[in-house]
Amino acid sequence: MSMSQRVFITGLGIITSIGKNADENLQSLVTGKYGFGSLEVLETVHRDSLSACEIKLEDRALSEQAGVPLHEGFTRTSLLGLISLQEAIQSAGLSPAEVRTSGLISATTTGGIREYETHYYELMDPKLRGDFVRFTDTATSGEHCERMADHVGIKKYLGTISTACSSSANSLMHGAQLIKNNKLDRVICGGTEALSKFTLNGFNALMILDKQHCRPFDSTRSGLNLGEGAAFLVLESEAEVNRKKRTPIAELKGYGNANDAFHQTASSPDGAGAFSAMQLALSSAQLQPEDIDYVNAHGTATENNDLSEGLGMKRLFEPDIPYFSSTKPYTGHTLAAAGSIEAVYCLMAIKHAVIWPNLNYKNMMPELGIQPVTTLRQEMKLKYVLSNSFGFGGNTSSLLLASV
Amino acid sequence: MEEKATYFINGVGIITPQKTFDREVFLSEISQYDKNILTCIAPDFKAYINPIQMRRLSRMLRIGLSAATICLRNSKITMPDGIITATGYGFLDETAKFLKELLEQGEKQLTPTYFMQGTSNALAGLVALTIKCMGYNNTYASKGVGFENALTDTMMQLNENASLNFLIGAYDEAAEIQYNASIRASHFKTEFINNLSLFDTNTKGSIQGEGSAFFMLSGKSSASTLCIMSDMDVVYKPDGRELQDALDNFLATNSLDAEHIDVIINGVSGDVEHDAVTNTLIRSRFENTAQTRFKHLCGEYTTATSFALWLGTSILSRQQVPDIVKVQHWNQPDKLRTILIVNQYMSKSFTFILLKEFVQTQ
Amino acid sequence: MNQNVDELIVELRAELIKQLNLEDMLPEGFDENTPLFGEGLGLDSIDSLELVVLLDRNYGIKLKDPKEGRHVFQSIRTMAEYIAKNRQA
């Protein structure tokens, strides 16, 4: 990367099934508390057979936490996004003027589909009137971003990315690019995803859900657990950070985006896309594989991903594979929000010098011969951390975070 | 300050409710619609997609892949360095099919195909898969500014490395599910009209359109270069003077006065309220400039800027303005070298794109 | 209904063509013994999921493990034989 402008992370906000803010998430990561359990909020016929990492808060409680009225058509996806966006803004100590001159890049795969599936028949009949009307035009991916931007007062630059499970990693990349190109001094980037019957049934039809708690990188793994949540990170230029004389949380030092080009929903068996994304992230930061201290893997616990990603990591890092783990047993697979949620977990790892354990791991995959970190490791000085996010459509993304 | 590249449009492929996939014609055969829904005139897909691949592709995936293939062939690039797509409403027909099955069958016995085809990045993934492109791949689903995000992303990457080739495309479907719901929000007219009389109406709402348009952008020109995209800007929810200031700043940044612009492409949509804002803006600086409009041909959709970009590109590369886009009282410009696109979506987002003629030097 | 295997073969061929959009692409000499996956018709993993749903919807058979499908879905004949043996009312 020829541009000299460095990009720093100065604030973060997060809400998942293991905590409704950053502190609660951190506590859960440390104590091993995970969000996997029965579905209680989402209404579905699969309640007795499929579990997920659900946020045990009704929309009413989320609206209260977000500080918005209940009946104004904020979808659950936009409420989760708004809550974490507001925390990120506060965490970065941004003034209203600074918020106004920021960009907002969000990400989601489902947007307001949860509300659409609930009110579908009423919405389809133009003659009907009622409360559901507030969800007339909230299904699209981009709507939640406009909703959040309008609420906090951002309008300089908006964007919504939708590349399945790599979406919010790409949000962070686009934000970083905008800063490096001097288009904006500050961009708030992330993603949000609420559970829905639509996704639950979609993944069930693909037969990649595990009814049990998922086991990433385990030879007996049999699929992923779905989760919901949101996270946003405030990115600021080097010039802004110097001007404000605030110590940033970390640096977004590099990133890589590639495509596996193998199959619409499966990753290549040799991990070519994974390898490429990680390698691009390294070269963009002018680092070598041996510089990496920890990899937060995509690690969904599907047969396909963990093999593909594992082989990609081996090819890149052999013979010295760095510490790695998947935090998806904690939060489930939060789809578009995974990239930013896991970036937050990487930042917490760097700040507190810990490596989060890959819960539920017992049996090594014979094809890999490597194993993740399985217990909480403390006093781990982490300088360079990689965070992987790979999705349908072959989209592979990798973020490189550095301590400051 | 980062050096800006020059952005060359080196190829186009477009499928819309007019016969635009065929390079031999330029809006000379016009299709008419009278139920407020405009749907694509598609080519024979077999010319662009192999039958084995075709069987699992939805209609819009076939349209998108064909448009991308036409663009690749026209630009004579077989392997771009990146693929970026943009949409507003995504693959709504397939989303609706999965949703309906889900609801009607009580979440039982569902097949995954519609679910997979409904993901917004399915087209970008499909193009990458088809040509085995492992480069940069992204999809923006930002309602009225998605295509603009894709252009911005590309421009920034070309600033970094001008020799790259980026394949950028937009797609949106005239889906029934969107039509039914959006009537309530006055997106579309409640009275049926003929699309060609869109701008004679004085009512709220536009007509529903769709299309897919792909462009090959590079920081280097080639034998296939059609025109230059000099600059682009987007304004979101401007109030007070912000919209006027944004236009004036755009002109000033590019050292332009009204007389430097030969043709305006005006993104009015037939909605009486939204159009008033755009027309006032254009009149403020371009009272006497030759003006064209296009949404009577393609309808309104979130990525309609892509149609305008194709129109401007074609006007400059062919040195010809089709009669069907000219407004009344057309002032024939004495040259066709510089075009300004002023598009808007629901008066929420406004886009300015500056295009310049490219003359091949051999 | 006691359909025999031959009747099921006829029925399944039509169902497969419809469900998997195969009209334009049946290879020469395609019959009930042609391998459906790999060499032969060349179906993939998504198609196998569609076939799992077809078994459930049309014949009341729930295949819990997608790997079991590899044997069942070898050809139209193996599918017909499996259905004749296992179908629910």
- Which secondary-structure class do the elements of chain C indicate? mainly alpha
Q: State the separation between the terminal residues of chain C, measured CA to CA.
A: 8 Å
Structural class of chain B: alpha/beta
Q: Treating each run of at least 4 consecutive H or I residues as one helix, how many helices of chain B?
A: 11
Coarse shape of chain B: globular
Description:
The complex is a heterotrimer of chains A (404), B (362) and C (89). In chain A, 34% of the residues lie in helices and 18% in strands. Chain A has 14 helices and 12 strands. In chain A, the strands form 2 sheets. In chain A, strands 5-4-6-7-1-8-12-11-9-10 form a 10-stranded mixed beta sheet, with helices on both faces. A two-stranded antiparallel ribbon of chain A has the order 2-3. Chain A has 404 residues and is of the alpha/beta class. By secondary structure, chain B is of the alpha/beta class. Chain B has 2 domains: 7-218, Peroxisomal Thiolase, Chain A, domain 1, CATH 3.40.47; 228-357, Peroxisomal Thiolase, Chain A, domain 1 (3-Layer(aba) Sandwich), CATH 3.40.47.10. Chain B has a 10-stranded mixed beta sheet, sandwiched between helices. Chain B is globular. Chain C has one domain. Chain C has helices spanning 5-19, 45-59, 69-72, 76-86. Chain C has 89 residues and is mainly alpha-helical. Chain C contains 4 helices and no strands. In chain C, helix 1 packs across helix 4. Classes of the chains: A alpha/beta (404), B alpha/beta (362), C mainly alpha (89). The interface between A and B is large, with 70 and 65 residues.
